[in-house]
Amino acid sequence: xLAGAAACNSTNNNTxxxxxxxxxxxxxxxxxxxxxxxxxxLGVNIxxxxxLAVNQYNEKHKDxxxxxxxxxxxxxADVAPGLARQVIQNKKIVGVIGPAFSGESESADPIFExxxxxxxxxxxxxPKLSANGWKVFHRAVASDTAxxxxxxxxxKSVLKAEKVFVVDDQSAYGSGLAEQVKKVLGAAVVETDxxxxxxxxxxxxxxxxxxxSSGATALFYGGYYQNAGLLRKQLTxxxxxxxxxxxDGVNDAGYIKAAGNDAAEGTILTCPxxxxxxxxxxxxxxxxxxxxxxxxxxxxxxxxxxxxxxxxIDAGNTTAEKLITYLSTVNYKGIAxxxxxxxxxxxxxxxxxxxxxxxxxxxxxxDVETPKS
Amino acid sequence: MHYLSEHFSSxxxxxxxxxxxxxxxxxxxxxxxxxYTLVYGVLRLINFAHSEVFIVGTFGAVLTWSAFGLxxxxxxxxxxxxxxxxxxxxxxxxxxxGGTAVVVELTxxxxxxxxxxPPLVFLITAIGASTVLSELVGVLTDRSVRxxxxxxxxxxxxxxxNMSLTNVQLILIVTALVMMVALDLFINRTRLGRGVRAVxxxxxxxxxxxxNKNRVISLIFLLGGxxxxxxxxxxxxxxxxxxxxxxxxxxxxxxxxxxxxxxGNLRGALLGGLILGLVxxxxxxxxxxxxxxxxAFVALVLILLFRPTGLLGESLGRARA
Amino acid sequence: xxETTGATKRELRNPLRGWYANLPxxxxxxxxxxxAALAYLLPYVGQVPVVGPQIITAGIxxxxxxxxxxxxxxxxxxxxxxxxxxGLLDLGYVGFFAVGALTxxxxxxxxxxxxxxxxxxxxxxxxxALSLISGLVLGWPTLRLRGDYLAIVTLGFAEIIRVAADxxxxxxxxxxxxxxxxxxxxxxxxxxxxAIMDATPYFWLGVTLIILVVIGARNLERSRVGRSWLAIRExxxxxxxxxxxxIKFKLWAFAIGASIGGFGxxxxxxxxGFVNSSSFxxxxxxxxxxxxxxxxxxNIPGAILGGVLISYIPDRLRNVEVFGKDAFEYRFLFFGxxxxxIMIFRPQGLIPSRRRAAELKDRAKEVQA
Lengths: 373, 321, 369
What we know:
heterotrimer; B: mainly alpha; two-stranded antiparallel ribbon; two-stranded antiparallel sheet; 11 helices; globular; C: mainly alpha; 16 helices; 2 strands
């Protein structure tokens, strides 16, 4: 064991991944995101997806394991720098899955950049993150500039709604998405409102009143699933019959649980991913077997992100530096998407697909791929 | 100018609707506030743990319902079953909340009283107790969301123009009124209530007159807990979903309502709750829902500036002793 | 009841404290200088054999954890002026921290609408001045309120600031301000002292600020202002009758407390390079208050200890296994229990103020009477 660790620490003595199986043994990946605190649910989804991938890898490589270290940032930008510095001190860590949120990315990513540790975020969708020239930054999902217009186009072209109400929860994610939707819909947006983040507000009666009396037939909600569920339940209670459209932050079993099957019926959820049922492999069943819950938002992307790193490590890219080079040319067909990154670390625009899902009988089922206009 | 007129027109359009929904939310604040006001009236203590007393109540009800196989998707047929299940849930919530309130008093506050600790120490202990309870519930429920069935499908009872009152809203408002009147009668008309007023007025002379101070204080916590239990079931009827941390902000609002009406004053709690619910809704209608909380606190500051002891003044024992 | 009184008396005869108090003045200064020097060396404590590894935080970078403690300590010191010295219950102290941090962000970040892009140092005086003014603005109308009314109004004030930070376009809410500049200074080789890889210099800056604030607070406590605060705390009406202008001195306490809180915010904003509204939660205010009271309200060493504990305990629990789970998940449970236990068994705080302990003793006597 000791010898293996020592081999990993001496990074540069082995030029290529030609031989020396010991080189890729005992390396570590880091999960970076919220595991506790009010936004823990998304972080847990991601951590579990990544851990599943690492476990499956280790089953196949019993004599040469890769470990996943978890760093709980609570999703807070002020906690993130300390954890990022802890990550970079661990010389075995060659790649980071995360940071999960945009805020913490802003304060942690510069540290990873300086240390040269590559990261793949499965969920931080703030567009400007890729504009910093960070060579370590990779985003495995579409940014808000792709998903927002897709949701807007769905409302415009598929639902053909003429009066749309837009609500967001003021999070970087929710408000960013709502802005994009408003841009696409233009004058069709009759009114807007902003609510508090999940956990801070449970009664939405004022918002519900505005929506019902605005005469809107569709509502776009930018935010996360818990408040979306409460809002949908209260809207149905007030007799509103329109369609709720929301982004991937709501694409979670928790939404249907909070709203109840009846109220959730017919909700449209967009996701910059292909339907999991179309995904190759047995991810959905494996995830359920391992964690005893259904895979949630971003679980599949995190699974893919971990596998991208693992494939790279397996191919002999055993240092952070080599992994960055590897990521710049990678073309990986995962379960949620095919991953190819631009020089800014964004997904190749050709790879970006946004699907709309529909809640039917308490299940999220694929509806259509969203129209481009 | 255009900006203002747009906001005004939206407020006017929704005024009736904002009023009824605001009153319904205010009814929950009021029931919740009664617990704060009772404890404050006697002990001069902001019982921060009261929000968790409420949350334990919501979980008491939800877990009981799920023991009967009911979840957010259950349909309950027949008025008889609806009433039966609601009463069972109410009983569970009231036992859970009342029990929690008394346990907090016995384990955390009573030892401090024995030492005659200063108010700040009580307050910090209350914060500690609140944290412990909230985290215990969080750990025991995996920090996940739990939902209740829809017992009463809301539908309009009365509709005048844009204003409507639903059956659920009516139930909430009437329940709050009934509970407040019952509590008022209990405090003002019964022997035990007289003890409460005596201790609130002057603990030492009450003790001299043969009132068992500790028993009265336990009673106060129990009563506050019972009201929180009722509020918990009302909340589940209205919102239908609970989580370990859902009580924190609600508790702060309810306490604000108590202060607004005049803390220590039962009628003040009702008035404060209803006013807070209305002000928040009107503010949300005018400025946007993101200003919901800010509007509530601005209203509080303004009212306290002009009436430093709240709208109806402090008086659990004083005014009508 | 006599038991309690006895315990309090023993507190007053704490041998360590007695030893310190009996030292000649220069020796006392020497002791303090050694303590301060040791504080500067804390980032290297991990290298001390045996003890060191037990002290450092395993799950988070130790210098960063120390830096976090330093701004918590600053906040605890500031709140101690308001709560401990003047006896005014402030539940919304984080509001001033927010004003300090956001002012720096607005003036320095390229994301700001102002577009001023000042340096960190240039923004410092403005941030502190604004915090001080916000303390006066809050204090002037509300200080007529007593006790718990003041508590709820201060809480409301902090919430109003939080909502404004969340919801106004100008303050950018959760999206936050990025690329905040760091404090100035370069090493001989031209590399900046305050870089992003190492938090140690930030911690040293924090300790320096703490020392300045401690010296200031200590002198204030012993001045006419401090004696007025004491009089107000013990009996406001009597103080008023004796000619203490209570409103004026309460305003002083609020303004000084607020500017120290703003100081904390300024220090905080310089390190991560990013500030958003999620750092200004109500829970933070409550945590700092709990720290001050646990440490020993009204006592500077007590407030420092309290500030350290509220930041250190959760960080230290990271990566500590308890029953096969990370203890970090139970940090608040543990914390809540600790608060209750300290309040029950040591209501005067871990390092009580002598004056406060005496007040407590008086209260305990009243029960006997």
